[in-house]
Design a protein that fits this description.
It is a single chain. With about 350 residues, the chain is of the alpha+beta class. The protein has 2 domains: about 170 residues, Periplasmic binding protein-like II (D-Maltodextrin-Binding Protein, domain 2, 3-Layer(aba) Sandwich), CATH 3.40.190.10; about 140 residues, D-Maltodextrin-Binding Protein, domain 2, CATH 3.40.190.10. It contains 14 helices and 11 strands. The longest helix has 28 residues.
């Protein structure tokens, strides 16, 4: 696999170690606690960018079933830099991360090791895992179009390529082109249409933007609701988060104002991405790390993922959240994510070449 290189800057890392008894530590004490327990045969040390609200019930269930305690360090940012700094002395046995780009970057940095598991090969379709077992997808999300119910006619836009069509001038909102979600989307277009086709698409999309790229995925749907644009690009699970948001009920109106469009259903299918797991090269509890990943790919954990975060289970046959099921079935792009990951360097450079964010 080709190396994905990018410049990084020092960032502050928000940490929390979640003990299954419900205690929380932060900062240096959390690191020392994790490191001190790294050699225990009945535990495993996890670095996770997935939030504690999602992971705690999963890890509690795993411990209840296996007796293996999970020491989780939550890192919103900075996991790659930290693992590089720790090197072979890192206490981490495995990582959990969102987006194929993040998993690929850890692999390209030489921080992961291959895993052979018949359970994982059975539970996870081949396109959602590394061909040599360096990482494994655990949940799936589609990169979809949020179209205004009032201003976008049925059938007016059905493909990612339509975002770059002349008729969409001034009608599209999207977050930064350099965000990992959009880099992966562009990489998938390189795989599908070649570099020339992807270049034309990126230029056409930029020309059609209603405003400079900004905000997160939910901010794009808000912009559609407010009439700033007619179509936004975002991940599927944000629809569930907006539609059920009791803390900020205004987001329910954003969700109600749009239709979900799964692009490219008549050809390659919608681009999908993953959250996933990998065993670190420094793992001292490798067997337990593999056991945890296997558990997270199984029926019980996949059901929890689906219920708590509006994601699609990676394991076929696991029931969807009813709200997610109401969006209907869709055809996913069958391109292997490992192949898409190899194009992320070119995709990132292409975003710069077309000055997408300017």
């Amino acid at each position: 696999m080709s190396t994905y290189a990018r410049s990084v800057k020092t960032i502050s890392t928000k940490l929390a170690v979640i003990a299954l008894g419900g205690l929380v530590w932060s900062g240096a004490n959390a690191v020392q606690s994790t490191a001190a327990n790294a050699s225990g045969a009945k535990e495993v040390n996890l670095y996770s960018s997935r939030q504690p609200f999602l992971m705690k019930p999963l890890l509690s269930a795993f411990t209840a079933e296996t007796g293996v305690k999970v020491n989780m360090v939550y890192m919103k940012k900075g996991m790659l830099e930290r693992l590089k700094a720790e090197g072979r002395n890192s206490p981490a046995d495995l990582i959990l991360a969102t987006d194929i780009g993040n998993l690929h970057n850890h692999d390209a940095a030489g921080l992961l090791q291959p895993v052979m598991s018949a359970v994982l090969d059975s539970n996870i379709p081949a396109q959602y895992r590394h061909p040599k077992g360096h990482w494994f997808g655990l949940t799936v999300r589609a990169r979809i179009l949020y179209a205004s119910k009032a201003r976008v006619k049925a059938g007016e836009i059905t493909r990612y390529e339509d975002l770059a069509a002349p008729g969409m001038k001034g009608r599209v909102c999207i977050r930064s082109g350099k965000h990992v979600y959009n880099i992966s989307l562009l990489a998938s277009i390189i795989v599908a249409d070649g570099i020339d086709g992807a270049t034309a698409w990126a230029k056409g999309l930029k020309a059609n933007l209603a405003r400079k790229p900004q905000g997160n995925d939910r901010a794009q749907v808000k912009a559609v609701y407010q009439g700033e644009c007619d179509v936004a690009v975002g991940n599927t699970y944000y629809m569930g988060k907006m539609a059920t948001n009791e803390k900020d009920p205004g987001q329910k109106k954003w969700a109600q104002s749009v239709n979900i469009i799964f692009p490219n259903q008549a050809d390659r299918g919608a681009h999908v991405n993953i959250s996933g797991a990998a065993v670190t090269k420094s793992a001292k509890n490798k067997a337990n790390a593999i056991r945890l990943i296997e558990y997270l790919s199984g029926d019980a954990a996949q059901k929890i993922y689906a219920e708590r975060n509006f994601e699609y289970p990676v394991k076929p046959g696991v029931a969807l959240h009813p709200l997610v099921a109401s969006w209907g079935t869709f055809k996913a792009d069958k391109a292997y994510l490992a192949e898409i990951a190899q194009e992320r360097t070119r995709a990132s450079k292409l975003m710069d070449q077309v000055s997408f964010n300017n």
